[in-house]
């Protein structure tokens, strides 16, 4: 195994024509053949999640992490699908904005042929004016990732999700090592920034019929980030990145968001530096 194929997609819970959208999501996964998938806005109900519906017959292991209890046995959260065994699942609650909106980080430890992959999925507060909440959330994520996955112990950590923040926002600049927050700093590499074709809108109100309902401007808010490349080895270096699942079939799209797909190097290319 030399490269890891990663997909992230906010599936828009069960809004719109879910059964038809489900078909399109599954078609996209078959076409892209990702090794690991991060899903946001996943609904759990009657002992089954939408991630289970998506993975039926596709050969993926699955893990779900609740972010918010909707009542009546229904939960809202994030999910991981993996071609490789998911050995451990941890849910890390994130700070809130003081309202009823709840967010979380799902941490999956995945056993791949190249080693253990620390894989993280999240979905941050959505309102435009919730920047302070998102800043608190990314600091919490960074602290958790750095504590749980020391550099060099496993494969470089991969963090994906719907961050509801554009690339030049404080929260994304923090994650990319371009500024500090609260006296703390971290560094992830944005796969699309280096290898994708701009503008890379993942919430496109001009072309996506469901995003158009918001009357918002198009923007890039979904990301695949990797804590690499690892010094001296090249592990964690992005190899390709693109916005995917953009098709519109007779007015039906897979979601109100587009997906992001990336390939990441997991093979040691050189001598480790110490």
From TrEMBL:
> From what superkingdom does this record's organism come?
Bacteria
Q: Name any one GO molecular function.
A: endonuclease activity
Q: GO cellular-component terms in the record?
A: membrane
| GO biological process, alphabetically ordered | GPI anchor biosynthetic process
Q: Name one Pfam family in it.
A: Exo_endo_phos
Q: Keywords assigned by UniProt?
A: Endonuclease, Hydrolase, Nuclease
Residues covered by the Endonuclease/exonuclease/phosphatase domain: 7-257
For whether the record's keyword set contains Repeat, the answer is: no
Record flagged with keyword Transport: no
Gene3D superfamilies in the record: Endonuclease/exonuclease/phosphatase (3.60.10.10)
Q: Which PANTHER family match?
A: CALCOFLUOR WHITE HYPERSENSITIVE PROTEIN PRECURSOR, PGAP2-INTERACTING PROTEIN
State the protein's name: Endonuclease/exonuclease/phosphatase family protein
Give the organism, scientific name. Answer: Polyangium jinanense
The root-end lineage is: Bacteria, Pseudomonadati, Myxococcota, Polyangia, Polyangiales
């Amino acid at each position: 195994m030399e490269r890891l194929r990663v997909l992230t997609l906010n599936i828009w819970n069960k809004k719109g024509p879910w059964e038809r959208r489900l078909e399109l999501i599954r078609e996209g996964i078959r076409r892209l053949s990702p090794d690991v998938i991060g899903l946001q806005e996943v609904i759990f109900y009657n002992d089954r999640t939408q991630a289970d519906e998506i993975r039926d017959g596709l050969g993926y292991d699955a893990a779900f992490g609740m972010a918010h209890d909707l009542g009546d046995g229904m939960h809202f959260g994030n999910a991981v699908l993996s071609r490789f065994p998911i050995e451990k699942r941890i849910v890390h609650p994130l700070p809130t904005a003081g309202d009823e909106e709840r967010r979380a980080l799902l941490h999956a430890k995945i056993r791949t042929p190249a080693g253990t992959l620390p894989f993280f999925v999240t979905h941050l507060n959505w309102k435009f004016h919730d920047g302070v909440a998102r800043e608190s959330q990314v600091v919490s994520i960074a602290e958790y990732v750095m504590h749980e996955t020391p550099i060099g112990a496993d494969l470089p950590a991969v963090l994906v999700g719907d961050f509801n923040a554009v690339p030049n926002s404080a929260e994304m600049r923090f994650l990319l090592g371009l500024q500090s927050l609260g006296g703390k700093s971290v560094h992830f590499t944005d796969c699309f920034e280096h290898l994708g074709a701009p503008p890379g809108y993942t919430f496109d109100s001009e072309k996506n019929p469901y995003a158009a309902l918001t009357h918002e401007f198009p923007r890039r808010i979904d990301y695949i980030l990797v804590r690499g490349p690892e010094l001296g080895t090249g592990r964690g270096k992005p190899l390709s990145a693109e916005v995917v699942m953009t098709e519109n079939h007779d007015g039906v799209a897979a979601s109100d968001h587009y997906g992001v797909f990336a390939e990441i190097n997991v093979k040691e290319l050189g001598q480790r530096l110490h």
